[in-house]
Amino acid sequence: MDRTEQLLKELTEAHGVPGHEVDIRNLVRRYLEPLGKVEQDGIGSLACRHGDAGPRVMLAAHLDEIGFMVTHITLEGFIRFLPLGGWFDQVLLGQRVIVKTYKGDLPGVIGAKPPHLISQEERSKVVEKKDMYIDIGATCKADLEEAGVRLGDPVVPDSSFKSLMNGKVYMAKAFDDRVGLGVMIETMIHFSQNTHPNILCGAATSMEEVGLRGAKTSAGLVDPDVAIILETEICGDVPGIKPEESSVELGGGPVLVLLEARMIPSLKFRNFVIDTAAERGIPLQYSAGLGGSTDGGQVHLHGTGVPTIVLGVPARHIHSHAGMIHRDDFDKTLQLVLALVQKLDEKTVKSFIP
């Protein structure tokens, strides 16, 4: 296991649902503090600065992963919950989770009424989150109270990092967006030892999955002149997806986002990325859609406006307990980001203004 694989293992196995990012934030802070000046905003986002002159270049990746919150405890000792971030009901039943209490972590499982006790008509329907519960093995409400469960406690997916396909594919929870954090941290490590014509600001933003909240506050902290959002991008190489819906392939290289729900990326910056990738021989994939947004939706509106693009590492099965990425995609995304940062001097950044 090399440094990058170890980094991704640590990042994905750390806990941190929206608004409860303390574990992942402490881990990221530990990586960033030797690399530059680290600051924190009022809701938990971090920013690490390196460099003394030139345009402020923001590399943003979000800390949080999707999870749940305890909202009700039944008399029988079961936990009702609400989602923190976007979950598909189909991927939840039978999955292991961890309830994080003031007394410690409690393992549990998401359950629902057994199929043996429901009608054939009910069996054909998707069970909705509202009909599910979390079971930690309690037999009454008092058991949960004694264990330390309180309303508002965060609940995280229970999933470990695995290396597949002779080490070329990694499987884990929370690649959205711990893979972006990995690219950001590796970039900061590189430029802590190499020159760059700018003030480089690596930002780890909070609460992206519930409305891009940390993107707004961290942009205020960094005050960027230009921004690169580092994310996952949904693969279209699985059964049931048409090429016109997504042509992104696992192992096909970094993805440049052309359009998302809350941002039209900078056209001149987009062309700069395409040209740089071609110069370095880095394969580039593309995506466009209105089904979601990234931290760019907030960052590009900071101040009087910030030229912003989004680069994604292809990922299968995001927003589940077991996403997948390809190591080659990570490495090539990192190569592209390093090349971009190296070229983002004051003249170049000013040329992005429409």
Description:
By secondary structure, this protein is of the alpha+beta class. It has two domains: 3-65 and 173-350, Aminopeptidase; 67-157, Peptidase M42, domain 2 (Elongation Factor Tu (Ef-tu), domain 3). The chain is 28% helix and 27% strand. The chain has ten helices and 17 strands. It has helices spanning 3-13, 22-32, 120-123, 141-147, 175-191, 213-222, 267-280, 296-299, 327-343, 346-350, and strands at 37-40, 46-50, 56-62, 67-73, 79-84, 96-101, 104-111, 133-135, 154-157, 162-164, 169-172, 199-205, 226-234, 255-259, 285-288, 308-315, 323-326. Strands 1-2-12-3-13-16-14-15 form an eight-stranded mixed sheet, sandwiched between helices. A six-stranded antiparallel sheet has the order 5-4-9-6-7-8. Helix 7 (267-280) links the parallel strand 14 (255-259) and strand 15 (285-288). Helix 1 crosses helix 5. The protein is globular and about 65 Å long. The model has no long low-confidence stretch (mean pLDDT 95).
